[in-house]
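#onboarding

Welcome to the new folks! Below is a worked example of what a typical request in this channel looks like: someone posts a single protein sequence, and someone else replies with the predicted structure as tokens. Don't worry about understanding the tokens yet, we'll cover that in week two.

Example request:
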Amino acid sequence: MSDHDVTCVHPADRVVADPTPGKLREQAIAVDGLWSGLVRTQAGETSGWHHHGDHDTSVYVIAGNVRVEFGPDGGRSVDAGPGDFLHIPRHVVHREGNTGSTTSEEIVTRSGTGPVTINVDGPSPAT
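Example response:
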């Protein structure tokens, strides 16, 4: 396959990748500087704290309700639902929760280099 081939990734071709407690990430595309996949979170679940290193992250919510907590002591949050986009800048420590009663589904795309997901103990303390 050359660098100029167009490819299609079918659902059966996705692979589980970049584990974070509370989230299921299915990698569809991982090429130099780009990661894209499907993320699911069960109702009432919250992921562990993590960041995405040198990657900017774009999230499109397909289904469910998503809350992203971030900032000092995790004291800030943004809520999103179906049809909403989220941007998570590189190095921002955060966690995602599903505040709804059904599984959330999101298309996630990351642009950058290095490790895609870095799990951490928590956000920086408030000063």
